[in-house]
Specification:
The protein is an alpha+beta fold and 436 residues long. It contains 13 helices and 17 strands.
């Protein structure tokens, strides 16, 4: 057993990881660069600073965010407990007073007798056991050290991802499977549009509201990738002759080529998720739901992840990470938070917790916990470590869970059953690996 584990970064993931290790009797050195240096997005010297929304999303078990909270609660998450203690009214969501939230976590972490705190900029991977949780704006020197340690192509610095929808929410009476000109296998799902449908969609897209960008992101966005709404702004027919071109496709309902086609490409090995090809976007999330639901076959689509275009340093997880966010071949170096390839506040918390529980077991020479794909904790970890042609960060959603072995009628009923299965599975994992 080493003298301590180094945790780099005192955000949500880092604080959760440090707390979970310390609660299991393992000394921790927590390194945080604030207030010596601030990233372009951070302003406060406190730990677990929320730089965007103060909402931690839904709480009920018919929502994957609610299920993730139930799983974190079962493992005594510091972040979740602090959020519940500093909550503000937000309907069915958990929202917090961001300042009280940060203060409570800072006080708890700094007050733990097994957590030592060091203020400095980490520019190298620490010696000895370590969990690195430095977030989407990781310092360039540390990025270089990570790339040198894990591989030149280890890091992405710009997140330009199209929306992802669940396969089961598609209207397959309108969507058809085909490849252009019948070449190869029928790998794409195709959403055909008439001229009237295309024009209505185009008008809605052109008039939709965009999300704000930080100043430090603007140059990256416009040089790194072209958003679908920017393409559309170049003329009404630009999309129809670009990413929505119908060339080589025949709508089986009409026997003719559609006016335009939106193609969907399989996102995960299970075939439960599909992304909208060529639809990188800066639209606000509510606008994405409104506008993209106008696409034939997507009227009732469930969005597992909305499109994003922003500065986001993250690992090419499938090439680097193994069980519980550990580097392949090195159980004593782990990554957590958005740097590991998860997306969202609670997801970052979950990765820090999972990485810490795995590290604690590894340090004691014990078998690491397998949370399985039946829990959100396990499914998120599986996502960041499973090879995929175009890896992108992921948030909690029911589409990443293992499918139920039987049919359940009705979306709400199915989600409730998935949550029930996840909680039962987690309780079994907790008991088997003595996690409480």
């Amino acid at each position: 057993m080493p003298d301590y584990v180094t945790v780099v970064g005192a955000g949500l993931a880092g604080c959760e990881a440090a707390w979970q290790l310390a609660q299991r009797g393992i000394p921790v050195k927590l390194i945080e660069m604030k207030p010596v240096r601030y990233s372009p997005a951070h302003k406060s010297p406190g730990f677990a600073e929320l730089v965007c929304s103060n909402s931690l999303k839904a709480e009920h078990l018919t929502n994957a965010s609610g299920l993730l909270k139930a799983e974190l609660r079962a493992l005594d998450s510091l972040i979740l407990k602090s959020a519940e203690a500093t909550r503000v009214p937000a309907g069915g969501a958990l929202a917090v007073d961001r300042h009280l939230f940060s203060d409570k976590i800072t006080e708890a972490v700094k007050g733990h007798p097994l957590i030592a705190f060091e203020t400095r900029v980490a520019d190298a991977i620490p010696d000895g056991p370590a969990i690195i949780a430095t977030g989407p704006l990781t310092d360039p020197a540390l990025c270089d050290a990570i790339a040198e340690r894990t591989g030149v192509k280890a890091l992405n610095f710009f997140d330009a991802a199209a929306p992802i929808v669940t396969a089961e929410s598609l209207d397959m009476t309108k969507v058809f499977r085909a490849s252009r000109y019948g070449r190869g296998t029928d790998d794409y799902l195709n959403c055909p549009m008439t001229e009237d449908e295309y024009n209505a969609f185009y008008d809605a897209l052109i008039g939709a509201e965009l999300a704000e960008l930080h100043d430090f992101e603007k140059k990256l966005v416009f040089e790194g990738c072209l958003a679908v709404e920017i393409l559309a702004s170049r003329g009404r027919q630009t999309l129809a002759f670009g990413p929505l071109k119908p060339v080589g496709l025949t709508d089986p309902r009409t026997g003719k080529a559609p006016y335009a086609v939106v193609q969907l490409r399989q996102e995960n090995a299970q075939g439960s998720l599909y992304n909208l090809v060529g639809f990188q976007t800066r639209l606000k999330w509510g606008e994405q739901k409104r506008v993209f639901s106008m696409i034939p076959g997507l009227e009732r689509a469930e969005f597992a992840r909305y499109g994003v275009m922003h500065r986001n340093t993250y690992l090419n997880g499938p090439a680097i990470l193994g069980q519980n966010y550990a580097v392949k071949g090195d159980p004593f170096l782990r990554f957590a938070g958005q740097l590991s390839g998860v997306e969202g506040y609670m997801e970052s918390t979950a990765s820090g917790l999972t990485a810490a529980l795995g590290m604690a077991r590894a340090l004691n020479g014990k078998e690491e916990p397998d949370f399985t794909g039946r829990t959100i904790l396990g499914a998120l970890q599986r996502h960041v470590s499973t090879p995929t042609p175009n890896f992108q960060p992921m948030n909690a959603n029911f589409g990443i869970l293992d499918a139920l072995p039987y049919k359940v009628r009705g979306k709400r009923n199915r989600y409730e059953k998935l949550s029930e299965t996840a909680i039962e599975t987690l309780n079994e994992v907790i008991e088997k690996y003595e996690l409480r």
